[in-house]
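Example: Periplasmic binding protein domain-containing protein.
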Amino acid sequence: MATPGITKRAATLAALTCLLAGLTACSHVTGTGAGAVVGSGAPLRIAMNVYSRTLPYFQNIIRGVQDVARADGHTTVDVTYGDTDPQLQFEQLENALSTLPNGLIVLPVDQSALIPMVQQAAGNGVPVVTLANDLDKAGHKFQLAYVGQNYVDVGRQKAHFIVDALNGRGSVGYIHGIRGLTFSEQQAQGAMEVFKTAPGITVVDGPYAGQFSSDAGLRATENLLTANPAIDALYFDNDDIALGGILAVQQRGRPMDGIVIIGTDGGQPALNAIGAGTLDMTISLCGYASGRTAAAALIDDLRHGNKPKDHFIPVDALEITKSNLEQAQDEITAGKC
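Written out as structure tokens, the predicted fold is:
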């Protein structure tokens, strides 16, 4: 559903840019208005909306996007934060589109709430790349691409790790992140598939923490351990809530080598916890590499009209335990993850 006048305003803006910048800069622009292919010498502006400003994973994504923009030499990135509020994200994207960006990078907190805005962007020739969470299938035709991981596979991988660590027998407490979030729900789907094939595993399906923070993880884990003090393993959707869960276990005086604890994201606090032996495994979603991949795909489309072959552009995840911690840190430092 396109907003009347946006295309006309885009054409007017392009003409004004040419007048101010001179014929040299304008000679790189092919076409007019939003969605035009922009040559390598002309400026690009990307609007980026991230649903949380605190997660290390998201900060790594932003850093990757900004590094690719800097390497392009003529691209700027404007970042806003939705604070895990779908309505706020919707309003922020509406505001972003009114400023006529060349492209959008969006990390949606809700699979369906932003589809009308992404559709509006597509209708005005503004390509949209989603990161970290995809839209519902109804929104795929309006996206340039989704960059990230298959979270069902991530859930399976984490569940297999726990089953193996417990030798197929024990109780597993499951602390979810945010209800309805693709990242949380698809992980659960994959993990439960694996746990159901292990007859010696009992899953205590715990609460949704409601946010990705150590405080939320602490509260959720305290509640679960109060009802199930002899739990053998704890599955956390992400590292932030896992770090709070570790504190809850420590406060009960349980030896850390007597419980298996896993998370996801692979930020530095989680890597420190693996080194200290309080977190057994995390899966880095390689935020920096994901940000670089998303920015490169968007800029390639804007500069050259090259569209990805598939809607989904996968980025390899990295399982990290104490045994490969040093190697993993080297890969992260080198920008490979």
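The longest strand covers residues 201-208.
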